[in-house]
């Protein structure tokens, strides 16, 4: 395939006739790469280790969609708590707006799993087996030989093993590590559903990292598509200093002073994983990976010019203005994030793991039996948001009686239960207003300790 020159008008990865133009990003070294490698190593470690960590017997992070149960470092969120989750979801959405407005696509370049695994795992393996850009291109163009088959087979075998480990770990977050382990040692026939799901994910991850690659960022990722509205002239970007670099030109002996610092070596283009030329200005395809910063710094060092021709900057800086860190939009975002997160945290910390409500069935509010006892019927509805079972016995204050259909009342873990309950009082002792309040206490059947109490209004005949 002929050489594709990046332009702003069309995507570099779309070749003639709409065909995919395969990229061969070159190997490079530099300070930013070292920093990103450290961050990537920590993130990969956390990603693989986290599903094995348990807090109070509960997986540290679990997003069990099938069971509708989410766990975050000891805090368990049940479906009944989903309104609380809304505060965290809204806070996170605005946090993304805040981070992007301030630091641009820092997520894409440093922490996105697509970048972290592609650039720091899969690409590294590919370079290790097939060599740098020119060797990889040559190998792909060469006819099939034993050497080509050996290299490709080894590469894809390693890719399959890593993709499979990656997919299994993702599954641990959504199903639970214990269950994934159990299913792993069972024959597939026992878990056809999950087995198919797993095989599909293994395949998808493999295809993504082996073939789809930068296309995910360019055409599939919704976050990437929103960049043009999320960034402003004060947001941090990876940018080329046009004033310093232009007019560009090859380095020659007896060079005149009117030349810019860019020696037009195309190293920044050669290392770019999305195949763009950052010298053409800010582009949607730029994932802020800093590869061109390292590549250009290396060249600047060689030609003894100051580093930073491509650097972390902002459009304001590049246009000679001072970058404003605090802007109204950023302050509003920060306040909203703080508001949503603190409200969510407060509700989460003070939520009751067991709640009981008394609901009156429609119809008669009270009955009088044998002309002596006023009786109020209720449906007691309990919601148990924990993973332990409760066994409760209802009690009421003096002069009242409580009779429950299920006594003791067992409320299984992570479920709701209903129990018909009658609260009774002697007619003669009933208040003249025909209305009294009484506290119904639910005691633990074994320890006799109070678990839950609520105030109930009891109706009777007025005098
Ligand atoms: S232009 Fe630079 S920072 Fe942007 S994706 Fe390409 S190499 Fe990475
Ligand atoms: S790496 Fe630097 S010097 Fe070379 S072409 Fe890119 S911007 Fe110019």
Structure classification: alpha+beta
Q: Tell me the span between the first and last alpha carbons.
A: 98 Å
| List of distinct ligands in this structure | iron/sulfur cluster
Number of structural domains: 3
Low-confidence stretches: none
What percent strand?
A: 15-25%
Main β-sheet description: 5 strands, antiparallel
Count all strands and give the number.
16
Morphology: elongated
Count of alpha/pi helices: 16
- Average per-residue pLDDT, rounded, comes to 91
Based on the structure, what is the oligomeric state of the protein chains?
single chain
Radius of gyration in whole Å, from Cα?
32 Å
The helix content is: 40-55%
Organism: Sulfidibacter corallicola
Pfam families: Fer4_18, Fer4_5, FixG_C
Protein name: Cytochrome c oxidase accessory protein CcoG
InterPro entries: 4Fe4S_Fe-S-bd, 4Fe4S_Fe_S_CS, Cyt_c_oxidase_cbb3_FixG, Electron_Trans/Redox, FixG_C
Write the layout of secondary structure elements.
Layout lengths: L30 H19 L4 E2 L2 E2 L1 E4 L4 E4 L2 E3 L4 H22 L2 H6 L1 H18 L2 H9 L4 H30 L1 H8 L7 H21 L1 H7 L1 H4 L1 H4 L6 E4 L1 H4 L21 H5 L19 H12 L7 E4 L1 H4 L9 H22 L4 E6 L7 E3 L3 E12 L5 E7 L3 E5 L4 E3 L3 E12 L8 E10 L5 E10 L4
Antiparallel strand pairs: 1-2, 3-4, 4-5, 6-7, 8-10, 9-10, 10-14, 11-13, 11-15, 12-14, 15-16
Helix pairs in contact: 2-16, 4-6, 6-7, 6-8
Bound molecules: iron/sulfur cluster (2 copies).
One iron/sulfur cluster binds next to helix 13 and helix 14.
């Amino acid at each position: 395939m002929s050489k594709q020159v990046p332009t702003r008008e069309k995507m570099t990865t779309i070749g003639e006739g709409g065909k995919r133009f395969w990229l061969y990003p070159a190997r490079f070294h530099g300070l930013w790469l070292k920093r990103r490698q450290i961050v990537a190593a920590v993130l990969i470690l956390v990603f693989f280790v986290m599903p094995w960590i348990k807090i109070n017997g509960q997986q540290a992070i679990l997003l069990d969609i099938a069971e509708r149960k989410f766990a975050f470092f000891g805090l368990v969120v049940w479906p009944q708590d989903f309104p609380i989750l809304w505060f965290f979801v809204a806070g996170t959405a605005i946090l993304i707006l805040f981070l992007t407005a301030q630091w641009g696509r820092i997520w894409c370049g440093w922490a996105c799993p697509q970048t972290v695994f592609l650039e720091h795992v899969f690409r590294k393996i590919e370079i290790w087996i097939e060599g740098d850009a020119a060797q990889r291109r040559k190998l792909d163009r060469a006819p099939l030989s034993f050497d080509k088959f050996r290299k490709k087979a080894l590469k894809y075998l390693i890719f399959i093993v890593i993709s499979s480990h990656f997919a299994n770990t993702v599954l641990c977050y959504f199903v639970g590590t214990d269950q994934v382990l159990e299913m792993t040692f069972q024959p597939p026939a026992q878990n056809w559903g999950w087995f198919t799901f797993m095989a599909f994910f293994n395949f998808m991850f493999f295809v993504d990292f082996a073939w789809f690659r930068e296309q995910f960022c360019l055409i599939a990722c919704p976050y990437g598509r929103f960049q043009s509205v999320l960034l402003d002239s004060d947001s941090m970007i990876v940018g080329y200093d046009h004033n310093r670099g232009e007019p560009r030109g090859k380095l020659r002996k007896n060079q005149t002073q009117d030349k810019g610092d860019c020696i037009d070596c195309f190293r920044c283009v050669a290392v770019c994983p999305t195949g763009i030329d950052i010298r053409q200005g800010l582009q949607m395809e730029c994932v802020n990976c800093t590869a061109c910063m390292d590549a250009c710094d290396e060249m600047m060092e060689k030609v003894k010019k100051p580093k930073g021709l491509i650097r972390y900057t902002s459009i304001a800086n590049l246009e000679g203005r001072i970058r404003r860190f605090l802007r109204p939009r950023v302050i509003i975002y920060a306040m909203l994030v703080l508001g949503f997160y603190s409200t969510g945290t407060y509700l989460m910390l003070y939520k009751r793991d067991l709640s009981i409500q008394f609901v009156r069935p429609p119809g008669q509010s009270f009955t009088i039996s044998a002309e002596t006892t006023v009786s109020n019927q209720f449906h007691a509805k309990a919601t148990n948001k924990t993973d332990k079972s409760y066994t409760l016995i209802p009690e009421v204050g003096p002069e009242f009686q409580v009779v429950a259909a299920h006594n003791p009342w067992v409320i299984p873990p992570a479920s709701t239960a209903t129990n018909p309950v009658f609260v009774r009082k002697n007619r003669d002792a009933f208040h003249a207003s025909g209305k009294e309040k009484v506290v119904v206490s639910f005691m633990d059947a074994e320890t006799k300790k109070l678990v839950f109490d609520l105030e109930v209004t009891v109706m009777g005949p007025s005098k």
